[in-house]
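Example record

The entry below shows one chain as it appears in the dataset: sequence first, then structure tokens.
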Amino acid sequence: MFDQPLAILGGGHMGRALVGGLLRSGIRPERIAIGETAEAARVSLAHELGVTATADNARAVDGAAVIVVAVRPQDTGAVLEGVSSLLRTQRPLVLSMVAGVRIATLEAWCGRGVPVMRAMPNRAALVGAGATALYAPPSVSAAQRAAAEHVARGVGGLVWVSEEDHLDVVTALSGSGPAYFFLLAEYMAEAAEGLGLAPPVARILAAATLHGAGVLAHSGVTDLARLRAEIASPGGTTEAALAAFAAADFKGTVARAVGAAARRSRELGAAAAPRTTPAA
């Protein structure tokens, strides 16, 4: 079991989800420190989860074996440069969960010789059902990759991708993906209301259907087309609905939406990159 000191920079939704998952996996709360600027969040994290929460990022990362970066892309540079002297001296693994910001940019902020890798989780991490993709350059050791896996498994399942560029696609697919399903469920409930169903009933059924479909899709049968076909009896109600989706180019709409999210991930990374390379 991973039981080395760990620091999380950023105590928002993702940081809190990580802490909860790691505590459930058996890591002791005294092994976790969080750097967070918002006082209310610090008080809540310390009181509810029993971890060290400080406004001083240097204090949080000092002595940590793994540092998880869970802040906004536009804040990442300032956060990492603020602790770069400690990173260069102690050389912990830096695991970035920041959308779009590339390894080369992270390394420039951290300093030469600091091992850096990336993870892209999603919001379902809040309930321990996250989907996280990991990417590590060759310079990251097997032991460090194993430590990153332990962190990711604390909030759900994980996969490895072989190219960093694939993380932009992961961001568009699973990182942003829960919102797509929520939107579909929202529209389904609204359509049912328009056909006369009471709004509370429509919302309950839409949410339960969303949950149940997810459980089915995660039950070991990964052939999504097969799962769909098993519901769509020839000449039945499901087939009629799917035909309406096809007529409206639902497949093309989804492809355009995922493509737009992937492009935005790349744009965020480019915008966050430093204009000049900081001194190592």
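Notes for this example: Strands lie at 6-9, 32-35, 52-54, 66-69, 93-96, 116-120, 130-135, 156-160. The chain has 13 helices and eight strands.
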